[in-house]
Amino acid sequence: MTAILSSDSRDGNWRVGAMLSARSVLGECKIEMQDALLTSHTTVIEARATLGSVGILVPDGVEVRLTGKAILGEKSSTVRQAPVPGAPVIAVRTTAILGSVNVRPARISQRIGGWFGGAAASELQLSRSTHEDTREKHDPD
Predict the structure, then answer these.
(1) Whether the Cβ atoms of residue 52 and residue 27 lie closer than 8 Å to each other
(2) Pairing between strand 53-58 and 100-105?
(3) pLDDT means per 10 residues in the chain (141 residues)?
(4) Terminal CA-CA length for the chain
(5) How far apart are CA 96 and CA 109, in angstroms?
(6) What is the pTM of this model?
């Protein structure tokens, strides 16, 4: 996937091969792996960000190996949960030049959306916005 002055994303149910490349130049690449089918025990992601960003969401229990370099940029992983024994490995090889590559676990709201499906998640969002509209009508400023 490549994003040059644009954005590119992968999410939902999709097959991930043993190798995936993400390149961002003044753009943004988003890779959501929590619902993806990993076809290999080890998945290697080559992530390059030049004045852009690559964001990777990973499922619970996988092992994340983040390597590479950041020059006037950032590479980080906020995955804190210990991997499940025998779990798949996601190896992220980074090069960030004035850009960022971030690996993080999926938030609970993103997991709930996947569990209930798109229609239910949309209904939940609609319910929240209706509640906020009602509250605004009853709360004078």
Answers:
(1) yes
(2) parallel
(3) 96 94 97 93 97 95 95 95 91 97 78 42 43 48 51
(4) 47
(5) 28
(6) 0.75
